[in-house]
Design goal:
single chain, 604 residues, 26 strands, Cytochrome Bc1 Complex, Chain D, domain 2, alpha+beta, 14 helices, Immunoglobulin-like, seven-stranded mixed sheet, 22% helix, four-stranded mixed sheet
């Protein structure tokens, strides 16, 4: 796996093993496109009339503004849907690989017994025992509340909320007020009612708690509705009351659109580098990792750019890109926050160099799998470019593999474009930007193993730390370079961890493996797509906008060279514009280029 843009590698629940055993904590920050893992909840009793025990909120603070289900939906799609599914039914693409089934938030038995405090706490702290990572660092407190309340919409269709609103208006509003503020005309002035829209009031209350209060009443202050309302009607009222504390969005509904302005500047991060100007600057907008809009502007002489009247919905992610010196560059992912319709997105570019002396391997992680014939090895290189120029790899960056290595695979990379196989390993052919951890490569290959393996691999650049992770205790590891750092038990599987430090460029890491793997191997599985650790479910996976941009390699494709191709390209462009897949400004820009090229070809 090669990650070109300024995004980090998402390890999801791999924290259970690697964060403790391999000191990867500093390596990883889940990007907006990463898989966050399951929001697995503890088991609950079927929701009828028995509420689950209330869980007091133990986090940082209640939301200062109403959480947005629309923003929560976008965040859920980015961080949770790979496991929980697009609609929260626990049927995501990764669900089959997980040891524990992801929670099904569409199940009333789960949703009606959950509280906002409990779900917020789970999202914040994670459940490592069920392979779910914490999101305290990768999502802000407000974003975690947005996701929390989005989950409540998955069991609150518009029809239920509308029915509840009608019943509430007829039977409850005269005391509780139109929006639950406790200010209805029949409210007692001597004993004010609770504000049902205050997050603190209902944070520890489930839908079942609300259902029971509606059914049984509250002493002399509130009548019981056990006989005058059906169960379905009481659930509908509970659903409507919950909307007092967040901005509701019906399941599957499209969020309302708004317009904003995105500004920024392109600066040169190389000392003495020239100020770029006149470049095409391209804005990409994404909804749930699907490209939603593309707009192109020209960089001004002072390096500034402005995208005016940008259409967006809550949660839409934006990236600004440009080409400089033949290298594509991208901004960080950004989105409009709160009620602000202005967004500043800076973008930095660099001069290029072929000097590799600034390249370092911060960490090199080596994993073994003995479950099949021979051994399958996974290697993760986390590299830094300590200079202030982009390393151009037109000639290729050489990596050697152990003798006898076969079946080379580099995750999310294409042979012939991103790398080339060589007689001793592979050659990387993508640029490396300045910065710590700016290049991350996940490699897998196979080696023969019949109970003995002399592992030997030359390191092309200085390696600060090399970690070797071997599952089980049946295989013995011996080396003059590696130091044992302990045996850890994770999910019932034992892992041996060994570490070497300060390997010089051109030196060779060697160690011996001996013994039968026995039944230990299911703990680590390396395949051509993912490195899966922990039997069925700890996944090292890259996803999201950074990889989409890298796979493109350049913001614009070359124009067709012949008249027929140009005519077809214009027709395709017209169809895209008519289908609403691009803005009018971008359509006119691309059509003008194609038309000019066609006239040139026709005149020739």
């Amino acid at each position: 796996m090669i990650l070109r843009w300024a995004f980090s590698l998402s390890i999801a629940a791999l924290a259970a093993i690697l964060l403790s055993a391999c000191s990867l904590a500093g390596d990883i920050t889940p990007p907006p496109g990463s898989s966050g893992g399951p929001l697995t909840a503890t088991s609950v009793a079927p929701a009828s009339t028995s509420a689950a025990p209330a869980v007091a909120y133990s986090g940082l603070g209640y939301p200062s503004i109403p959480p947005s289900a629309a923003k929560g939906a976008a965040l859920f799609a980015q961080h949770c849907a790979q496991c929980h599914g697009e609609k929260g039914a626990g049927d995501g693409q990764m669900a089959a690989q997980l040891q524990f089934p992801p929670a099904n938030f569409t199940d009333p038995a789960l949703a009606r017994n959950a509280t906002p405090a409990k779900w917020f706490d789970t999202i914040t702290k994670g459940k490592i025992d069920r392979l779910m990572p914490p999101f305290a660092d990768s999502l802000t407190e407000a974003q975690r509340w947005d996701v929390t309340f989005f989950l409540f919409t998955l069991n609150a269709p518009q029809s239920s909320v509308d029915a509840g609103k009608a019943i509430y208006g007829a039977k409850c509003a005269e005391c509780h007020g139109e929006r639950g503020k406790g200010d209805g005309p029949m409210a007692s002035s001597g004993r004010p009612l609770s504000d049902l829209g205050d997050p603190a009031t209902l944070a520890a209350k489930s839908q079942t708690d609300l259902f029971n209060a509606i059914r049984d009443g509250q002493g002399q202050a509130m009548p019981a509705y056990a006989d005058s309302l059906t169960d379905d009607e009481r659930w509908s009222v509970a659903d409507y009351i919950r909307t007092f504390s967040y901005d509701y969005l019906a399941p599957g509904a499209k969020p309302a659109e708004a317009h904003g302005t995105i500004t920024g500047s392109v600066t040169n991060g190389t000392a003495g580098g020239r100020q770029p100007s006149g470049l095409d600057v391209v804005l990409y907008g994404f909804d749930q990792f699907q490209l939603a809009t593309t707009v192109t502007e020209t960089l001004q002489a002072d390096g500034s750019f402005t995208f005016g009247d940008v259409l967006y919905i809550p949660g839409r992610a934006f990236i600004v890109t440009t080409d400089y010196g033949g290298v594509p560059y991208s901004s960080d992912v950004a989105s409009f926050q709160g009620d602000s319709a202005k967004l500043d997105v800076p973008l930095k570019v660099y001069e290029v160099t072929t000097d590799t002396s600034f390249l370092r391997v911060d960490r090199m992680h080596i994993f073994f799998d003995f479950s099949g014939a021979g051994a399958v090895v996974g290697e993760l290189f986390i590299m830094s470019n300590t200079g202030d120029k982009t390393l151009s790899l037109d000639a290729g960056l050489q990596f050697e593999l152990p003798p006898g290595a076969k079946n080379l695979s580099i995750q999310n990379a294409t042979a012939g474009r991103d790398y080339r196989e060589t007689p001793t390993g592979f050659s990387l052919t993508t640029p490396i930007l300045p910065g710590g951890g700016s290049q991350q490569i996940l490699v897998s290959f196979s080696l023969p193993y019949d109970g003995q393996l002399a592992f030997s691999q030359k390191v092309p650049f200085p390696v600060a730390t090399a970690n070797v992770l071997v599952p089980g205790l049946g295989v013995k590891v011996s080396s003059d370079q590696l130091q044992p750092t302990g045996v850890r038990d994770v999910q019932g599987t034992q892992f041996q961890n060994y570490t070497a430090t300060n390997l010089a460029a051109g030196s060779t890491l060697t160690f011996n493996l001996a013994g039968g793997a026995g039944g230990s191997s299911p703990a680590v599985i390396v395949d051509r797509r993912n490195l899966i650790v922990g039997g069925a479910g700890l996944t090292l996976a890259v996803a999201g906008l950074g990889w989409w941009l890298f796979s493109r390699r350049a913001p614009s494709a070359a124009l067709p060279a012949d008249r027929d191709g140009l005519i077809k390209a214009i027709a395709d462009l017209d169809n895209k514009f008519e289908a609403g897949e691009m803005s009018e400004k971008e359509y006119e820009r691309q059509r003008a280029k194609l038309k000019a090229k066609l006239i040139e070809q026709w005149n020739d």
